[in-house]
Amino acid sequence: MKTKSILLQFIFIVSISTLAMGQQIQMPQASPTATISQKIGLTDVIIEYSRPSTKGRKIFGELVPFGEVWRTGANAATIINLKNEVKVEGNIIPAGSYALYSIPDKNEWTIILSKNTKLWGAVGYDAKDDLIRFKVKSGKTGQKYETMEINFVDMTDTGATIAMKWETTRVKFRIETEVDSIVMAEIKALVIDKEAENPGLLYQAANYYFTNNKDMNLAYDWITKSVSEDPKYWTMHLKAKIELALGKKKEAIESATKSMEMAKEAKNPDYVGLNERLIKSIK
After folding, report:
1. pLDDT tens, 1-26?
2. Quick one: which H or E segment has residue 16?
3. Which residue from 73, 145, 131 is spatially nearest to 102, judged by alpha carbons?
4. Which of 4, 18, 170, 195 has its CA 20 to 30 A from that of 246?
5. Cα torsion 85, 105, 162, 83: sign
6. CA–CA separation, 72 vs 150, rounded Å?
């Protein structure tokens, strides 16, 4: 009986201890985690990192020493996920996940993409895991960044710049993606080879050809078929722009006028203005 009582007391103590250990007080993180994502061209790029704050400290050259590998953030290593193959500062990088390390210096940083994404910060970092290293110039920001920030800037149809800012230091590197060969392959498969009649597909193909200064006569054939089958104010506006590019000024004015009338009917002032300006530029 005594043995049973001791056993019950032991179980009770273990249960209380386990419950106490499982309880936690929720508090703000010193370096909160962040995830940013951006579609660059046709490629999704996702960056996961923790955001340390200055808190009155001198950062680069002291808290983050010059000439040493840094996790480029706080806590676990910063991770960059690439859904497709890209070029980073002109270097081909296969699709995948990489740890983003850096070696800060006064005027120049070394950026590292490592294949080892499992480390806590830079603890255990080994250069043999590097996929690539490249150097970029560092610069000064126009304001102080209390908390480290990574974002995407200077967006184009095919690329973007990743900018890292903390304290008064800014470092940037460029990502470029392949777009044209993919889009052209789809246009060939869906529009050219199948001799598409779908007005939406024809509009998309014509718009891509016009925007990228490709075969304007083919673009004109496609947009003409599109507006003939299903006229919209935006497709008619594109027809006017392609006609102008081909030197068909009279036809361009007629198409822009029709587009403007349709846009007024649809209560879309943006396209009304676009057509007004287009007509004015021709006259």
Report:
1. 555 555 445 455 545 555 445 577 87
2. helix 2-22
3. 73
4. 195
5. positive
6. 10
CA angle at 96 for the pair 93 and 98, rounded to the nearest 5°: 80
Quote the tokens at residue 82.
């690439």
CA–CA separation, 54 and 122 (whole Å): 20
256: its two tokens = 């822009």
Q: Decide if 127 contacts 103 (C-beta within 8 A).
A: no
- The Cα 65–Cα 104 span in angstroms is 7
Exposure of 212 in the CB half-sphere (CA atoms within 13 A):
17
Nearest to 59 by CA among 76, 73, 79: 73
> Taking a C-beta distance cutoff of 8 angstroms, is the pair 117, 79 a contact?
yes
Residue 38: is it exposed, middle or buried by C-beta count within 10 angstroms (0-12/13-18/19+)?
A: middle
Q: Please report the DSSP string for 200-222 in residue order.
A: HHHHHHHHHHHHTT--HHHHHHH
- φ, ψ dihedrals at 68, nearest 5°: -120, 150
Let me know if 58 is exposed, middle or buried by CB neighbors in 10 A (0-12, 13-18, 19+).
exposed
User: Is residue 117 within 8 Å of residue 97, measured between CB atoms?
Assistant: yes
How confident is the model over 20-43, as pLDDT tens digits?
Answer: 455 778 777 778 899 999 999 999
Place of tokens 């953030």: 73
- pTM of the entire structure? 0.80
| Dihedral pair phi/psi, residue 11, rounded to 5° | -60, -40
DSSP string, 170-198: EEEEEEEE--HHHHHHHHIIIIITTT---
